[in-house]
Amino acid sequence: MNAVTFSKYGGPEVLEVTEVDEPHAGPGQIRIRVAAAGVNPIDWKIRSGMMAQGSQPESPVVDGREAAGVVDEVGDGVTDTQPGDEVFGWAVSGAAAEYAVLDAWEPKPAQLSFEEAAGLPVSVETPVRVFSVLGGLDEGQTILINGAAGGVGAMAVQLAKARGARVIGTASERNHDYLCELGAEPTTYGEGLAERVRELAPDGVDLAFDTAGKGDIPALIELTGDPARVATIADFGAAKLGVKVTGGAEGRHTEALHEAAQMAEQGRLRITTAGTYPFSRAGDAHRQSEEGHTRGKILLLPD
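Predicted structure:
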């Protein structure tokens, strides 16, 4: 089958469409014919070698972590899904390929396109995990989301609002109207952040979630008054300050897929696409993701 792969770490140019063996569903898994795959910062961080231990890949690595498509193979023990079902979920075999094996999935709501559904798994699981890492997000609390217009940030805003929280979100000024539409109170990130947030919330905020990794951690600690009330998925050096750093290694909150599907079915979930690219232009998709300042999710589609 054709897949987006890389055989060495490097820039976006190392991505190419190559022929690889088809994966097959193991026990408790399903295989889908991929209709769309999501692009996330973790994808280019792995491709660049940022997550490696110095050695090059031993075999071609298939790009991507999340996908949507039509089930064509069901593994042993799976009783609630059958070939022909439309689903979205987490890929264990690489998502940007003709076929992908999923180990966590949810039926695709009829209201969503495959493209919209493909961008959900990472975007919704991450904030649900972060809320848990922070001890839970309760009704009436105020959370600051740093980098609120991106794929994860926009979902974090909506999931926080669904929990009854007040949300203050940072983004570039061109995305402030977008944040307002999502239900957040916008401000800009960078120097002077603490002062700008205090104009909105004089007593500070209860929790802070950093998706951007742009050096704002000290301000988030100041605003919450406690580094344990701050979590980041982008600034791995923040752990030395007492901030909670989470990358998912501690376990995924796959129940987030069901929550997102329910919200979509109820018309309470807004999904914004920042760009779509064919597999053959995966390098361009990664470049856009690396540049940052995106509004919503970037997607890859089979050629």
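Summary: The chain is about 25% helix and 25% strand.
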